[in-house]
Amino acid sequence: MYHAHPLSPSRSVRVAACALLLLICSVSTAFSSSAPPDRVTNGDIPDHGIETVVLEERWRRGSEDDDLFFGLIIAALADDDGKVYLLDAQLNEVIVLDRDGGLVSTLGRKGEGPGEFSNVGALTWMPDATLGVVQRFPGRIVKLALDGTPAGNVLPADPVGGGRDILNGARVSGDVLILCGAHLTRDGDTQLRRWFLSSYDENATPVVNYLASDVVFASTDRRVREIDSDFVGNGRWDVLRDGGVVAAPQRDRYALMLYGPDGTPLLEITRPAEPPQRPQDMLDEMEARYKASGRYTRMGIEQEFSPYNPMIQQIDARDNGEIWILPTEGTRPQTEGVFQVWDVFTETGTWDRQVAISGPGDSERDQLFLMNDGRALLVSGFQNALDAMRGQSSDDESNTDDAEPMEVILYEIR
Question: How far is CA 328 from its chain centroid?
Answer without folding.
Answer: 14
